[in-house]
Design a protein that fits this description.
9 helices; 12-stranded mixed sheet; alpha/beta; binds iron/sulfur cluster; 329 residues; TIM Barrel; 12 strands; binds S-adenosylmethionine
């Protein structure tokens, strides 16, 4: 193995979030309320399969063991199965996850599993079909639920469900969500709404702190679970009466960045050291032939020295990220 990716604060990077497209077919009110709008024929410029293989191989050589394929909506890529297959066949990668809006899951999840996908996150912001439609702009609740059922049917032991909690939309649904996971092996991940560059008053009106939710669940017998080195950012809780688990993602909490173990590569091949606050570092020129790998690794290692200790979100920084579809959430 080449030298493990590490920054000057001794954080080691085991986890790569790889975006494969900016395109999305949903219009989530906190992400792409107007829907996806291509900028100057950008569709054709997303990373190709050979480029994806090269970037993942370089990360794996430097200690990355988990890759999350994200977007936009990653399953809109026609070669999505090939991408999963390529990532899962990279030496050193033991976990291949995706985050999806679930639109194609019912039809495709068996193929994804066969291609090597080990973990699935699906976004379901409401258990009420009308509210789901209102939040996502799409009347696809039943389709997404069928996708979750299918995932269990084809052999996934757990599915993670992402829920962005919002004051004026789904906050009242927490009890319904908890009831739902009583008998299902679902890790419900309550994500705090994050402020992005294109958000206006939406954040002020809808942001809910995860702190109160944590206090509530701890008072109700939920217990914290121990973290693994390549785990994502969630604080996970279990309860003896529930088959499911709760994950809390609280990016505004002090200390959130201390356990940062992940790096991001955008769909156009830029390295992002943090979800917020920078324009990205070009890697694509070094993804053209296999023999560029040492140079690619050196560039990433050099850039890691400038990774900041924190995202400073709590100081109102929403940085250069217009919306999370542009960098993969
Ligand atoms: N399209 C896929 C999906 O929605 O699952 C993958 C990409 S999406 C950008 C990844 C995750 O980021 C989703 O769970 C979504 O709910 C979340 N997300 C998007 N914008 C967000 C925001 N402003 N604050 C918090 N979470 C956000
Ligand atoms: Fe699309 Fe995901 Fe953004 Fe919703 S959160 S608009 S599904 S990229």
């Amino acid at each position: 193995m080449a030298q493990q990716f590490e920054d000057k604060f001794h954080r080691k990077f085991y986890y790569l979030r790889l975006s494969v497209t900016d395109v999305c077919n949903f219009k989530c009110s906190y992400c792409l309320p107007e829907g996806y709008r291509p900028v100057g024929g950008e569709k054709s410029t997303f990373l190709t399969l050979p480029e994806i293989k090269r970037v993942v191989t370089a990360f794996a050589d430097c200690g990355t063991t988990k890759v999350r394929i994200t977007g936009g909506e990653p399953s809109l890529r026609r070669d999505f199965n090939d991408i999963i297959h390529a990532v899962s066949n990279t030496a050193g990668i033991s976990k291949v996850a995706t985050t999806t809006n679930g639109y194609r899951m019912a039809k495709q999840v068996a193929n994804w599993r066969q291609a090597g996908l080990t973990h699935i996150n699906v976004s379901v912001d409401s258990l009420n079909p009308r509210m789901f439609h209102q939040i996502t702009g799409e009347n696809k609740f039943e389709q997404v639920m069928a996708g979750i059922d299918k995932a269990f049917e084809v052999g996934y032991e757990q599915v993670k469900v992402n829920v962005v909690l919002m004051n004026n939309f789904n906050l009242r649904e927490i009890p319904a969500f908890l009831e739902w996971i009583k008998t299902r092996p679902i890790q419900l991940r309550f994500i705090e709404l994050m402020q992005t560059g294109e958000m206006d008053q939406f954040f002020e009106k809808n942001h809910v702190s995860g702190v109160n939710i944590r206090t509530q669940i701890l008072a109700n017998g939920w217990m914290p679970k121990v973290r693994q080195s390549n785990d994502g950012p969630a604080q996970v809780f279990t309860h003896p009466d529930y088959q499911g688990e709760i994950g809390l993602i609280m990016p505004y909490e002090k200390g959130f960045c201390e356990t940062c173990n992940r790096l991001r590569v955008s769909a156009k091949g830029k390295l992002h050291l943090c979800l917020f606050g920078e324009q990205g570092i070009e890697l694509r020129d070094l993804l053209q032939v296999d023999k560029q790998k040492p140079e690619l690794i050196s560039r990433i290692q050099a850039q890691l020295m400038s990774k900041s200790v924190s995202h400073y979100l709590h100081d109102g920084n929403s940085g250069a990220t217009p919306h999370l579809a542009s960098i993969g959430g």
